[in-house]
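This part of the workshop introduces the protein records we will be handling. Getting from the letters to the tokens is the skill we practise here. An example says more than a description, so a record of this kind follows:
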Amino acid sequence: MKALDGHILTPRGFIRGRIGIDGRLLASVVGEPVAEVAVRDSTLPIVLPGFVDLHVHGGGGADVMDGDDAALKVAQVHVQHGTTTMLATTMTAPADDLRFAFAGVAAARVSTNGATAAAHIHGVHLEGPFIGASKLGAQPDFTRPISLADVQALHAVAPITLITVAPEAAAGGEDSSISALVQAGFRVQLGHSGASYEAAKAALDAGATGFTHLYNAMSGLHHRQPGMVGAALAHASHAEVIPDLLHVHPGAIRVALRSIAGLYCVTDSTAAAGMPDGEYRLGRQLVTRCMGGVRLADGTLAGSTLTMDDALCNLINALGLSLAEASLRTSTLAADYIGATQRGRLVAGAFADMVVFDRDLQLRDVIAEGLSVHGRD
């Protein structure tokens, strides 16, 4: 059995102790409680749960929509930055493009099942094509009404963990509603929509449970027209937010933190993540990495270059969150949301997914299902 000593973040707080690793799982987590202030004052390693990112389009020049081995390459890039569990995220696209991307994800899931240094691909985040044409953001215009049959056909190729839909994509009828997706067992988030507060609330009542990249590509908050953002802040139990400090102002993130208990962080990263400035593809769109972000030719933000280690640091340095809460919102809450109870927490029986930082929050190692990504003992 392998062991790792340090300051370890458990569900009850930090301990000074030891983690025992047996193969791909945690065998034991033991130690004495310690205050977080002492953790940052010590030279002992800081051990947190591996990051869980539910919105990943690409990285290292690869895009999930490229199919073939692209999803595997993306998982290998993001694990270097501490993401140990992710959802491969698709773009709004024609049916053939989606089937091709799903086939690549299915193959990547086999390759990342503890056999290589890569993030575990838990499933697919189907971001569209059931979104609103008025709030495409960086999505190409291949929108169409909800089709349960289409979703089930894709799910048979690779498991769909999360679906982003717009209320206006529910065209009516048994096969074309949010409730039909929910009753079939799919987890639905709202996003890319110009829907009113009332329509968004009705979608939540129909079974939607969260919001995709809160604030972005959705109708905003006005005191007489609360919009999608208002519905999220008033009623949501969960929502994504992109903490790259470009997509959302830190003050707006603070508002969401006060309103949504299950607010969790995603990267919405593109092929440009981990790459130099230049041109890349996001699905069928050509995007440019420049000035710390990714944009379409008209300047529209098009995903990000964010990685989860930087997301954690932004929560701490720009928003003033504690290390424990920042870890909660970059790992545990997202894992809980998708029902991945063996991920995003350091307890006996969970997968041995960990990130190791020093006192200055420099990432020193990533352990994915018991394997040191950086080749350390």
